[in-house]
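Standup notes, structure subgroup. Blocker cleared on the adenosine-5'-triphosphate input:
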Amino acid sequence: MAAAKQPEPDPVLSLRGVAVRVGGRTLWSGVDLTVGAGEFTAVLGPNGVGKSTLVKVLLGVLPAAAGEVRVLGGAPGARSGAVGYLPQRRSFDASVRIRGVDVVRLGLDGDRWGIPVPGLGRARRQAARERVAEVVELVGASAYAHRPIGQCSGGEQQRLLIAQALIRRPQVLLLDEPLDSLDLPNQSAIAALLGRICHQEQVSVVMVAHDVNPILHHLDRVVYIAEGGAVAGTPTEVITSETLTRLYRTPIEVLRTSDGRLVVVGQPEAPALHSDRHPEPGTGGGGHVAG
Ligand SMILES: Nc1ncnc2c1ncn2[C@@H]1O[C@H](COP(=O)(O)OP(=O)(O)OP(=O)(O)O)[C@@H](O)[C@H]1O
Ligand SMILES: [Mg+2]
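Run returned:
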């Protein structure tokens, strides 16, 4: 007699035939994606195609125009306490006096910020302090977490904000360009940290990224968005000359360098848009390190 088959666990995130409209315009449609517990997904594509908008749909702040979106078994936004979020391009002005640890703590009780909470006992305050110290340590920010955040560098602020997104032990972590403004060693370090959180603690990570290379080794799934369309699948399925040529309707070549990096040549994106993030020579001029 055949052994009884284990039922498939419910996916943590699922999109079926999803389309999104902003300002009366459909950004993309027909997106199918399933993300399981502990899977690491990258959302890639040129500026303005709707990557951040996809994150907003998963957060439940923007309804899908078509199709079905499920997050942790319910409607997006229904279990917001279990979803950590790092918005795109956040930075604190030099005059901001709030300490890094206080910014991290906002992730726990942001809704009560600045208001003394009656009845929040000593034990809870102590537990909160310990959790803050734990996530600050986890992201490697202990050395500067007690400084005013406005005096931390962009990369240091980034780590503190990742700690803020992690503090409630989310089951889903939505990160919109978390590697933005980090140098290459820090991109690799944060990617490795997120890979560990994802695979060891079974947190499902969805990360919008500009460059796939720092995260390539950790990735389980990729969503590539182009104007009007999107493809989703494993990196080996999606990041190929054939798939990207079909998606962008223009010849695109995916090359793999001897050290395993991917180079996408011919991607329809103005390289100048990202010259601030890709200052090294050889990645501009129509060639583009994948992402
Ligand atoms: N509320 C809105 N009303 C009208 N258009 C909008 C609105 N929000 C976003 N858009 C437009 O939708 C498109 C997609 O925006 P989105 O922020 O998702 O792009 P993105 O892929 O994240 O780009 P980037 O790489 O620059 O961050 C853009 O053209 C943007 O101008
Ligand atoms: Mg964006």
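Discussed briefly. Residues 270-289 have pLDDT under 50 and may be disordered.
Next: hand off to the docking folks.
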